[in-house]
Design a protein that fits this description.
alpha+beta, 6-stranded mixed beta barrel, elongated, 2 domains
Length: about 400
């Protein structure tokens, strides 16, 4: 018997009990739809995180103060708390490491910012214009503060888009004067929107000032919390990381066996870590949703066993007119697979629709890949084969004489 004829017979057999067939497929439909939706959410989140990480630059090397070193008494110093990272370290990196194109310093503080009757509590970051080159972060309006403003620690500021929108609802912020910790700062520029970082914070909710101004007039600190450096290429960033670690250990007089008082990370490391985390989350969501497929498969086995019992006499007649055990087994197996594939097809459509609703109403990023759709279809067919094999085997082993006598 050819495969086309087997499928036609399977469809006619399933059409005899439309409601039962539909309810049997429901478990597969729910399972496939859940897998498609959950994997889509997981892959969408992974893609968003990767895009955010890429926004920092693929060849960025990030040096932060504080990481794993211990303070006297054994307590670990938190990130950005150790005061040994200074501007001279940055200059030494630029001077002695040829794999690094440039570095930008960074220190953070927080303050209430006021413009007329508007105010907002936000982060104040001290840096140089090179930071925005490293981050590939263009200006939306105005200009960037330069070396003269940095050298003389002038009160000038560049606003993130969120701060600009909150403080200046209808006015052009460039040229206006805001107050940071009761000190006047002239707004010289507004940055293009950057969006959320990979850690979920709003990168546009910041004000940028010369690092010398932050140190002398806002925070009072004379050290740096981090450096953002650009390697000559993405491949060179790993070698640059090793050279920076060696240079800083030498400059900070860290002996062999002692822990570093700084931490050096590349964007590739961050991207790999985020990818692993997202992949685990996607697998977890997919595994939980796959339980519905397992339940649907058990439903198919149950209905196929009932079908074998109901069609015992039909099986006997087919065997009597020449059908072999393989023909009977193939027929019932195809019926089970057909149920699974039909349910899988409907589930894929529903899963894609649910993903669209999740993205539209909740604003979550959703990405449905062709691989996920193919995997769902193959998995649903596999469920049909796995749970349909036993009923098909039982049908093929019926005694033709006993089957013909069955009422």
């Amino acid at each position: 018997m050819d495969l086309g004829a087997i499928f036609r017979i399977a469809l006619r057999a399933l059409a005899r009990n439309k409601m039962r067939s539909a309810l049997t497929m429901l478990g597969i439909v729910i399972g496939v739809a859940a897998v498609i939706a959950m994997v889509g959410v997981g892959q969408g989140a992974e893609n968003q995180v990767q895009q955010q990480i890429q926004s920092f630059g693929t060849n960025t090397v990030f040096v932060s103060s504080g990481s794993p070193s211990r303070r006297p008494g054994g307590a670990r110093a938190g990130s950005w708390q150790v005061r040994t990272l200074v501007v001279d370290d940055m200059k030494a990196i630029e001077r002695e490491i040829s794999l690094v194109q440039q570095c930008a310093p960074g220190s953070m503080s927080s303050a209430q910012v006021v413009f007329r009757n508007q105010n907002w509590f936000t982060r104040i970051m001290g840096t140089t214009g090179g930071y925005f080159t490293v981050r590939d972060w263009p200006l939306l309006a105005g200009t960037m503060f330069g070396e003269d403003e940095i050298r003389s620690a002038q009160n000038v500021a560049v606003l993130g888009k969120t701060v600009s929108d909150l403080l200046f609802v209808t006015e052009d912020p460039v040229g206006q004067v805001i107050r940071i910790k009761e000190q006047p700062f002239r707004v010289v520029g507004v940055l293009a929107p950057k969006g959320q970082s990979a850690f979920g914070d709003d990168q546009d909710d910041r004000i940028f000032v010369p690092y010398t101004t932050l140190q002398k007039k806002v925070s009072g600190q004379d050290w740096l919390q981090f450096l953002s450096c650009t390697a000559i290429s993405r491949d060179a960033s790993l070698a640059a990381q090793v050279q920076i670690e060696s240079l800083l250990r030498d400059r900070h007089r860290i002996r062999p066996g002692q822990e570093d008082d700084f931490q050096v990370r590349t964007q590739s490391e961050v991207a790999e870590l985020a990818e692993q985390t997202s992949r685990v989350m996607t697998l977890l969501l997919g595994s939980i949703a796959s339980i519905s497929l397992l339940v649907g498969g058990i439903g198919i086995m149950n209905i196929m066993l009932v079908s074998v019992t109901e069609r015992t006499r039909e099986i006997g007649i087919r065997m009597a007119v020449g059908a072999t055990e393989d023909d009977i087994q193939r027929q019932f197996l195809v019926e089970a697979v057909t149920l699974s594939l039909l349910g899988g097809g409907v589930g894929i459509v529903i899963g894609a629709s649910v993903s669209g609703l999740i993205s539209g109403f909740l604003g979550w990023p959703v990405f449905i890949s062709a691989q996920a759709v193919i995997a769902a279809a193959v998995f649903s067919a596999g469920v049909g084969v796995f749970f349909g094999f036993y009923p098909a085997r039982q049908a093929s082993r019926l005694d033709p004489i006993e089957a013909l006598r069955y009422e």
